[in-house]
Amino acid sequence: MSAAPEIRAPRSTSQTGRVAPQYLRSGGARGQFEMLAWLFMRLSGIVLVVLIFGHLFVNLLVGEGIHAIDFGFVAGKWADPFWQFWDLAMLWLAMLHGTNGVRTIINDYAERDSVRFWLKVVLYAATALIVILGTLVIFTFDPCPVIDGVRHVADYCPAP
Amino acid sequence: MPTKPAGTLYRGREGMWSWVGHRVTGVVIFFFLLVHVLDTSLVRVSPEAYTAVIGAYKNPLMALGETGLVAAILFHAFNGLRVILVDFWKSGPKYQRQLLWAVLVIWLVAFAGFAIRHLSLALGGH
User: Fold this and answer.
1) Residues A122, A123, A124, CA angle at the centre, nearest 5°?
2) Domains in chain B with CATH codes
3) Band of residue B85 on the pLDDT scale cut at 50, 70, 90
4) d(CA B105, CA B26)
């Protein structure tokens, strides 16, 4: 009859006086990256609750709601830097938050290395495209465009 | 030896199902976000192009879709705040089940308020 073997906790230091190398949490940029991604999800999440609730309230619940949304509605909002930066912050934070969420899901369910790699390539390409496109649209937007020599007519546009 | 997994604090309970709900709603919101940035980008093409596409969001079927999307957003938002409490509040893990029930009650109230207002605007004669 031998005594039951001692089962130590993974990071126990009782035997050797230090944590076994495979359980060390520091070291390597990768460990740091995952912690920062975890923290980003929580911080951006709080900000996104405010930004998206405000977005839904102003666009869907005030006045005529969805019926009021047309080109002039967007032009009216983006004439104001406040809403430009609101929408810019929403675009960037929501896209990074969503991309990191989908990255986590890919890591969880795609078992083959090559499948995981290519799914993430597609994900990051889509994210870059949407973020760059959205940012350009917000900052190059012209509420009174001239298309094929014809100036858009609206009450907020200067008289031709 | 038990033939089936014994009941745990997590499997098949509030913790697991809220995690499933958070994932599913997160994916739904992400794909809508991709489409939503693309449709909004049409303001850069022409006023007519944007107004035509946004007109598609104003039919009754889309109104139901928007209501479902907001249901997903509200759950993801409130459950996300619950996750933050579980992670950062020292009693969070102890009360995670009660927090989920609080999330569901707040979700129901917020969703009912949104659905009544949005559907009466979207489906009401205009």
Assistant:
1) 95
2) 22-123 (1.20.1300)
3) very high
4) 20
pLDDT band at A79 (very low <50, low <70, confident <90, very high): confident
| C-alpha span between A67 and A53 (Å, rounded) | 19
Label residue A48 exposed, middle or buried (CB < 10 Å: 0-12, 13-18, 19+): buried
Confidence of residue A84 (pLDDT cuts 50, 70, 90): very high
A73: nearest Cα among A81, A49, A94, A65: A65
DSSP class of residue B48? H
List the structure tokens of A139: 């900052």
Prediction pTM value: 0.85
CB within 8 Å: B51 and A141: no
With an 8 Å Cβ cutoff, the interface of chain A facing chain B consists of: 42, 45-46, 48-49, 52-53, 56, 60-61, 64-67, 69-72, 74-75, 91, 94-95, 98-99, 101-102, 105, 126, 130, 133-134, 136-137, 140-141, 145, 147, 152, 154
How far CA A112 is from CA of A105, A115, A120, A121, in Å, comes to 14, 5, 12, 14
* Phi and psi, residue A146, nearest 5°: -105, 115
Classified as helix, coil or strand, A4 is coil
Least Cα distance to B74 among B46, B52, B103 occurs for B103
DSSP reduced 3-state for A106: helix
Higher pLDDT, A72 or A128: A128
Whole-angstrom Cα distance, residue A51 to residue B118?
19
Domains and CATH numbers, chain A: 32-143 (1.20.1300.10)
